[in-house]
Amino acid sequence: MAWLAGVDGCKGGWIAAFCDMQFGESPIVSVFRDFQSILTHETAPGIVAVDMPIGLPDRVKGSGRGPEQAVRPLLVARQSSVFAIPARPAVEAGDYARACALALAHSEPPRKVSRQGFHLFPKIREIDVLLRAEPGLRDRVFEVHPELAFRTMRGVPLDHPKKIKGVVNPLGMAERRALLQEAGIPFAAAAGRPPRGAAADDLLDALAGLVVARHIAAGRGKPVPDPPGRDSHGLPVAIWTFTSPTPPSQDRAMSERPVTRPMIEEAAARIAGHARVTPVMRLGPGAFDGGADISLKLECLQHAGSFKTRGAFNNLLSLAVPAAGVSAASGGNHGAAVAYAAMKRGVKATIFVPEISPAAKIEAIRRFGADVVVGGAQYDDAQAACDRFVAETGALKIHPFAARETIAGQGTLAREWDLQEPDLDTVLVAVGGGGLISGIASWFAGSKVKVVGVEPEGSRALQAALEARGPVEVKVASVAADSLGARNVGQLVYDVCNGAVDHVALVPDAAITKAQASLWRDFRLAVEPGGAAAFGALSSGAYTPSEGERLGVLVCGANVDLAKLASIAG
After folding, report:
1. What is the mean pLDDT of residues 483-494?
2. Confidence of residue 244 (pLDDT cuts 50, 70, 90)
3. Do 160 and 286 fall into the same domain?
């Protein structure tokens, strides 16, 4: 088994987070008095990513070594420190005055040493002596910078600093924990108490190093500069980060899609800390008496009970909200998500629902503080009432699927899923208005992952649009109509899904209710009809995976009437 380590300096010496290459278990975290003990730990880590400078110049030109000057512009000014490491003679000095004198003599323009930088010198010397004495370690020990790692995970600079005037910033810590979760670090590890001798921010920095170590081991490491320089003792001089895995066919044509990967990356950064990172349940090979390797993505555990929370937050965090607040039409889940996001953002919300909306969903919307208005018999009637309200009041309309902000927000689910299960062949996704599958198809477009939509036989707006080569009206009659009951997916959803969705599988209502019962009986998951539809396609044979296929099934909604579920489950 190949082991990795992410390391940061701390008050007690060094904090190290160990994990195997697969990130299969929660990392082992310990504090060590000396760096060599990490290398000789029982896990014998093959790659160690450490937040400490490696390789020292004999003379410095400008504001530090080349890697520091290259990395600094990527981070937000005054939020993330990239120390200007002085020349080797200054680092080797034993006292601060001598270090400043030598730094002045060996830099152009002349620069002294900061007090904070000086305190790092003993740890820099510790690694320097070790790597100079044992050249073989130079292929195992890599310099990283946690803030560059977090910036790479997010794709854009972070919103919140980790510290403000030396004091830990809770918003910054939450943002970084969310990024670590998306990268595969269990929440319990990222949010856990650090061992004695280390602080909470030291723990997050070590875990960030662990993420970089994993990418280096997988061949995705990226040195800055590339290739690394060398100091006069042959030590590499580079700060390592990584390149995110992207589909090989993602080229100029991809940027012309209505919703692109960069838009989804930006949405993921925007909603980090607001939407949950939901888990994957691996059923493994042989489930359902077949040869496929099956797993369930449990988005039913999302805030407000469904994936729609992602799109709701992306809208509220992307767009200006007027004094009249926000408004939405919904069969229930979108309304609950908008109400929840509005509550968290301190914004007024008015939600229009059709008469078919379950009482449990209406109650959830009200519980989150929104005003609820019944706006007609079917979803489209509620949407018309919502549109009139928006025209009269100037409220911001948050559409459940016909908006790029919504689709990009839902696409963050696919990005997260891809990080958790990077080797999927196919994903099964329930379809209502099409915002969810549009976001997922936008992320996986051009990759090897096949996106298959699942619709009830009595509510097939996406399949009808793909057959007609354009959006068309359909009749709706299904047990899942409250969440999968759009009569028309609209032009934007069609444009996104056309060519990006492999096909649509249709499931009868009986298969959907049977899937609800099975999810409760076998996994203790209380799931509404729409949330169980994709699982119903698998269990009923509407979709039959091939031998060895790695299949991901999305369980996407938990706002179910428990009394009705009890009658279904028997």
Report:
1. 87
2. low
3. no
